[in-house]
């Protein structure tokens, strides 16, 4: 499963990139706002750092302006994936931009029917939002399962980019189901390493190293 980092914070991306944990980056208007940066500048800086797909979201809601914005975003770098919302205008922009050879990430997906439309519109990625479904007592992981089944039934090449990931359990469940990509905040990715028995075991080893005066160098 590919790991995308869901942030526009350059330092956080760089830290995980140095560990080989960054196959791509996703941003959205809320993450750009949080960064306090100009969207074109920060997106260009991310593309200079990360060679994998970097999602940058349009601000328009009508197809013609989404297409114009998408073309401008795509000029930033070869690895830009233009992010459009799952609306009919977004799907029209997706079809036009993918026909032009650009990567498109269709976002704000909350049903398998929506994901089916995105695949038929030629989407490179579909972004189903797990956490926001869980927030209203629905089952976000069930959506990932449904999309995986539908896409596999018909051989759609659109990659499932599981998003709105809030926990390490979401990450594991996505991997169990077979999502192609998961995008998570840096903190969730960093939490994947944690286990109390690892800490306990290492403490015991260190105590024995000290007690036995084990030296290598
Ligand atoms: O990529 C989408 C993601 O940023 C949304 O996450 O936690 O705001 O639902 P969240």
What's the domain count?
Answer: 1
Strand order of the largest sheet: 1-2-3-4-5-6-7-8
Distance between the termini: 38 Å
Number of DSSP helical runs:
11
Mean pLDDT: 98
Task: Quickly give the CATH architecture.
Answer: Alpha-Beta Barrel
Topology diagram in text:
Layout: E1 2-6, H1 10-17, E2 24-26, H2 29-35, H3 39-49, E3 54-57, H4 63-74, E4 80-85, H5 88-99, E5 103-109, H6 112-120, E6 125-128, H7 130-134, H8 140-154, E7 159-162, H9 168-177, E8 181-184, H10 186-191, H11 196-211
Parallel strand pairs: 1-2, 1-8, 2-3, 3-4, 4-5, 5-6, 6-7, 7-8
Helix pairs in contact: 1-3, 4-5, 6-8, 8-9
Bound molecules: SN-glycerol-3-phosphate.
Question: How would you characterize the overall build of this protein?
Answer:
The protein is α/β, with parallel strands linked by helices and 217 residues long. It has one domain (2-192): Alpha-Beta Barrel (TIM Barrel). The chain has 11 helices and 8 strands. The chain has an 8-stranded parallel beta barrel, surrounded by 6 helices. Helix 4 crosses helix 5 and helix 8 packs parallel to helix 9. The longest helix is centred in the C-terminal third of the chain and has 16 residues, at 196-211. The mean pLDDT is 98. It binds SN-glycerol-3-phosphate. SN-glycerol-3-phosphate binds next to helix 7.
Keywords summarizing the entry:
alpha/beta, 11 helices, binds SN-glycerol-3-phosphate, TIM Barrel, 8-stranded parallel barrel, 217 residues
Question: How do you describe this structure in short?
Answer:
By secondary structure, the protein is of the alpha/beta class. It has a single domain, classed as TIM Barrel.
